[in-house]
């Protein structure tokens, strides 16, 4: 049985995060993505497939090219998870600020 991929797996890898950053500005074809990294096109293709399986990237064909587009809505799951801790750290910083002002 194949394990289900999730957005946390996608962003766990620095190469995949860099690909998401790259695609956030505009869609790119696979060659343009691969040209930005010092690894094989096959390795980049695997990273993009993982991003697609996690719902962060969609791919469409345009002639012979595969155009990749980022789907940032998938990161809302991560934002929701982080936000539960954001309040905790904001409170700590507020308390530190009050302490420093006294």
Automatic annotation (TrEMBL):
It comes from the Bacteria. InterPro entries: ArsR-like_HTH, HTH_ArsR_DNA-bd_dom, WH-like_DNA-bd_sf, WH_DNA-bd_sf. Signal peptide: none annotated. Residues 1-93 form the HTH arsR-type domain. NCBIfam families: HTH_metalloreg. This is Metalloregulator ArsR/SmtB family transcription factor. The lineage of its organism: Bacteria, Pseudomonadati, Bacteroidota, Sphingobacteriia, Sphingobacteriales.
